[in-house]
Specification:
Layout (H helix, E strand, L loop, with lengths): L2 H12 L5 E10 L11 E2 L1 E15 L3 E6 L6 E4 L13 H12 L6 E8 L9 H16 L6 H16 L6 H8 L4 E6 L5 E5 L5 E7 L7 H19 L13 H7 L6 H25 L3 H17 L6 H12 L3 E7 L6 E7 L3 H16 L4 E4 L7 E2 L1
Helix pairs in contact: 2-3, 2-4, 3-4, 3-5, 4-5, 6-8, 8-9, 10-11
The structure holds alpha-D-galactopyranose (GLA).
Alpha-D-galactopyranose binds next to helix 5.
């Protein structure tokens, strides 16, 4: 969507001109899944798909939300706080505005037109994208001087407190500070980060949307969050640690008897071994050992499937196909799971054939088609 096209849509809707235009990407996570709320390291990157916003201030003290992707709209009086209403899309930007108001920032009336080209609710962080986009836009419009890191922190608060999902910081952080062709190595405990060159030579990072509706994803996610907290509490009886990711596999082995519940033990074991995989993945990427990186992706998927139990038949079928395709060297589900997307490292020259064969394989087993596309690693939120 170009700025010109956005302006035209804005004019049709509001009968005036938009004054500012912004874009915020979505993200994929290369490795380190369900790690952010356990204090470890993750490796996401921003992608070129995302959410657009055209906006202008108004003087009638109204917040108007329109989105080209949804029929639902909202027009609300400017208030000092808001609460979530139903499950509509505009709760995300509304939550972002609510959060800024809670932090004593003042905003005027706004006419807002959103458009997203990210598949919605597919695990590519469409919600973090719209939250961070809204805050970034208001930050620019009213010169609030909030850093992108703080926007990410506030975005997480929106998700946790306004939307009601106990998610970690990874998604908001990735879309706020992403950089073209770079993976972000984020320490979710300290929020220190660095950019790693994502140099994959003859390969392409494929994104495969399972097109499976993510039912009950939020409640299952919150369940995993609680399970990790419960396992940590038990381990803390003997270990002086703050997060599950502070524990290495050897220490875990000698203390896992404290957990007793086999479900909780599996969850903790995933977290602790996934955190180790991230460390190995950093070395593999730095040494250009893509095949090693790919193996770690497969191992991550296996652990998410069997220990953390957040995959599902659709994502498993995708990874099963990838393992049989010789020009694919690694694949895994990405994001929260329970449906959504997988990623795969595929030889550039074979990408078309890979996509065709995967679609047929998946359709035969699942009954409908996945969407397969080659991703472009893009920059973070910004003005258009
Ligand atoms: C979702 C959450 C993130 C993270 C991932 C799993 O995307 O929003 O905070 O926990 O799931 O890694």
């Amino acid at each position: 969507m170009t700025k010109l096209e956005l302006q035209e849509k804005f004019r049709n809707r509001f009968h005036k001109e938009a004054t500012h235009f912004f874009f915020c990407p979505g993200r994929v996570n290369l490795i380190g899944e369900h790690i952010d709320y356990n204090g470890g390291k993750v490796m996401p990157c921003a992608i070129s798909l995302g959410t657009f916003l055209a906006v202008a201030k108004n003087t009638d003290k109204k917040l108007r939300f329109h989105c080209l992707n949804f029929p639902e709209t909202a027009e609300l009086h400017l208030q000092s706080s808001y609460t979530k209403t139903g499950k509509e899309w505009f709760n995300y930007p509304l939550g972002a505005i609510h959060q800024l108001l809670q932090d004593d920032h003042t905003v005027s009336g706004l006419d807002m037109l959103f458009y997203g080209n990210l598949p919605i609710g597919a695990g590519l962080s469409s919600s973090a994208s719209i939250e961070v986009l809204t805050m970034f836009a208001i930050n620019e419009l009213f010169q609030l001087n909030i850093s992108n890191t703080d926007i990410a922190i506030l975005g997480k608060k929106v998700e946790n407190e306004f939307i009601g999902v106990n998610s970690g910081i990874m998604d908001q952080f990735a879309v706020a500070i992403g950089r073209k062709d770079k993976a972000i190595l984020l320490n979710c405990d300290t929020l220190e980060y660095e950019y790693l060159p994502f140099e994959i030579g003859d390969y392409v990072l494929a994104i495969i949307n399972s097109n499976k509706q993510r039912e009950l994803a939020d409640s299952k996610y919150n369940e995993r969050f609680r399970e990790c907290g419960a396992a940590l509490k038990l381990l803390k009886r003997e270990l002086s640690v703050t997060h599950l990711c502070d524990i290495d596999p050897v220490i875990f082995e000698s203390h896992k008897h404290l957990i007793k519940d086999p479900e909780l033990e599996k969850r903790a074991f995933h977290v602790i071994t996934e955190n180790e995989r991230v460390k190995l993945a950093i070395i593999a990427l730095q040494n250009g050992e893509l095949e090693k990186f790919g193996e770690l992706m497969y191992a991550s998927h296996q652990s998410l499937k069997e220990l953390y139990e957040v995959s599902g038949r659709e994502l498993d079928v995708i990874v099963e196909f990838c393992k049989t395709y010789s020009d694919c060297i690694g694949a895994r589900m990405t994001g929260a799971g329970f449906g959504g997307c997988a990623i795969a490292l595929v030889k550039k020259n074979s990408f078309e054939e890979f996509a065709t064969k995967l679609i047929a394989f998946y359709k035969e087993r699942i009954g409908y088609e996945p969407a397969v596309f080659a991703s472009v690693i893009g920059g973070g939120v910004g003005s258009l």
